[in-house]
Amino acid sequence: MADLFNKHLKKATNRTKEKLLEGIGKAKATQDEVFDQHAANLVKQSKSCEKLHKDVKTYASALKALCSAEKQLRDTIREAYEQEWPDREHLTAIFDNLDIQTNELEKTVCEDLPQTVTQYVNQFPDLKKKIEKRGRKLVDYDSAKNTFNSVKSSSKKDNDPKLAKATVELQNAEQMYTEMNNELLEILPAVYDSRITFFVDTLQSLFNANSVYQTDASKFHKQIVMQLDKLGESMDYLRVARPEARALTPIDTSSLASTDAPATPDPSKSDSTSLRQSTPSPTVLVSPPPAPAPTAKPRESVVSIANSTNPFDDDEAEDEKEATPTDVEEKFEAKVYPKLNAQQTAAADQAIAAARRQKREPSNPFDDEDDEKTEKGDSKETKKNDSEPPPKPLDGITNEKRKTLYFVTSTHQYKAVDTDELTFEPGMKIKVIEANEGDQLDDGWRLGELEDGKRGVFPENFTKKI
Question: In the chain, N or C terminus with fewer CB closer than 10 Å?
Fold first, then answer.
């Protein structure tokens, strides 16, 4: 063991001495420019491949995390998609196919590809060790050659044992150096040329796997979008049932009017845009709100409203106290809802007058005058109600020439809630025109024109841009 250690120590000392002599120019070193070029190419190639190996491992780790997140998201969607929703089995099958494609991509990019790059990069440390060993053998060869030349020049005899020993050492050193040098001269160019096939195979495997996955995943994703469209169209029969709003009867209105609540504001004086506080949802059926009742005086009974037309007819007041509830309701409805009953006012008044004449005694001389006054007052009130102008639309809803911005197609049915809104069915083409500052459009609403020339505003989320 000690002899082996002494031998290695002696070799290391001789190599250090030889390099020192070569450095100061007292010993001649063997130069091989071809080998030096191959060694430099190997260093450059190893750095490039090691960097690629590092980036591939990082990409594979990130892709693996992404695939895991996508699988978890699909599992959550499977659980959230309810049993009664349409085509749940079809959506589950699409997700299963996506899981298969994800597993294939993960195996190719996250397992096979990094393993191939690792095997290729692992050859560089061994080659570098061989190059270092070849450098040591070159120093031994130079040392043996310089020793032989020195002994030969100093020897005076042909059979000098020192010269023979130097010759044997030179032959052994030259043989070992030549064998290793020739081996590396064959390996290094082949390894350097292999970088081309390595890059081609590695990158093709990477991008081909991504291309196949993205193509198949794109088809499945489109199928999922179509499936979700069906779910959105099924909103009408999947939505939770809601209780129907009961129509407000005259009796209910009279009870509200008899309380101490403040008078109801007139809807004709309110802003026309107050009904559009927010953009309506295309899945909710929109119906026009009922017209509110005109203001009634507080603590005013139904009988007092019905008798307000003739304050001087005492007999008529007594008859009306004995009248049936139907007559009272008809009178009250005529007073409280004049706009809603404008078209039936004349016929109702005639029927009431005829009933009064049948109940009234012929000895009352003031009945005819009271009836005439009542009919005249009712007719005036009817004319007044009929002459009320409709709500004024927005200033932007005019026939003036506007700039056309783009066209949209309606995706859902919408019924106008106000006079300045459009009514349309699914599939209708709407021209979106430019709006002015005076149009006072709310967020989510656009100014448009139908094919028949009618203009108005409409909710943008009920349409799709062409």
Answer: N
Q: Examine residue 97 and state whether it is found in any structural domain, yes or no.
A: yes
Q: What is the CATH number of the domain that holds 426?
A: 2.30.30.40
Does residue 33 surpass a pLDDT of 70? yes
Cβ atoms within 10 Å, residue 233: 15
Q: Whole-model pTM?
A: 0.47
Pairing state between β 404-410 and 455-459: unpaired
- Does 317 reside within a domain? no
Q: How many CB atoms lie within 10 A of CB 381?
A: 17
Of 192, 207, 234, the domain-final residue: 234
Q: State what percent of residues in the chain have pLDDT above 70.
A: 62
Instruction: Give a yes or no: residue 203 inside a domain.
Output: yes
Residue in 308, 228, 273, 266 with CA at minimum distance from that of residue 419? 273
CA distances from 205 to 103, 115, 210 (A): 15, 12, 9
Contact 434, 426 (CB under 8 A): no
Pair of tokens at residue 323: 């009248």
Distance in angstroms (rounded) separating the CA atoms of residues 199 and 197: 5
Which of 236-240, 302-306, 330-334 is predicted with the least confidence, judged by mean pLDDT?
302-306
Paired with 455 in beta bridges are 449
Residue corresponding to tokens 């100014």: 447
Going by the DSSP 8-state scheme, the letter that residue 109 receives in this structure is I
Q: What is the DSSP letter of 110?
A: I
Of 19-33, 82-96, 151-165, 313-327, which gets the smallest average pLDDT?
313-327
3-state secondary structure of 459: strand
Task: Give the whole-angstrom CA distance, residue 281 versus residue 278.
Answer: 9
Domain span at residue 164? Answer: 31-234
Q: Tell me the one-letter amino acid at 277.
A: Q
As a whole number of angstroms, the distance between CA 229 and CA 222 comes to 11
Strands (DSSP E) contained in 75-166 are: none
Total number of domains constituting the chain: 2
- Which CATH number covers residue 96? 1.20.1270.60
Encoded amino acid at 8, one letter? H
- Residue 76 has phi, psi (to 5 degrees) of -65, -40
Token pair in block for residue 306: 């019905």
For residue 354, the SS3 value is helix
Q: Are 396 and 438 in contact (CB under 8 A)?
A: yes
- How far is residue 186 CA from its own chain's centroid? 57
Kindly tell me if the per-residue pLDDT of 79 is higher than 70. yes
Give yes or no for a contact between 293 and 253, defined as CB atoms under 8 angstroms apart.
yes
Task: Say how far apart CA 184 and CA 136 lie, in whole Å.
Answer: 14
